[in-house]
Fold this sequence. Notes:
Layout: E1 5-9, E2 15-21, E3 32-40, E4 44-53, H1 56-60, H2 66-72, E5 77-82, H3 86-100
Amino acid sequence: MIFRRHRWHGETGKTYRFRITMTDKGLPEGGGVYVFVRRRFVFWLQALYVGKAANFRGRLIGHERWREAWHRKGATERHVLVLKDRDDHARVEEDLIRGLTPVMNDIHIPRGR
């Protein structure tokens, strides 16, 4: 695969470097933050959904929103960012949801929390 990594930017301006996976076999061990992505025209990517997981394999295989992302929203891949510190999971997820405003994230996180 030509594309193996992608950078997403949070509301704070911080850049996060994600690994791209298109199959369950490509999911890394551990947990962190993930993004369901629709790729168009090779380089144009749209974040559809941002979430966090304590364990990528346990969370993403059979994820309840993946079918909707794949069939209705045109998702083509998942991006994963491994984070060792669980406290970082929520912080990074929140920063990315605010910065990317993904269409499938129903709950938008209010500022000043």
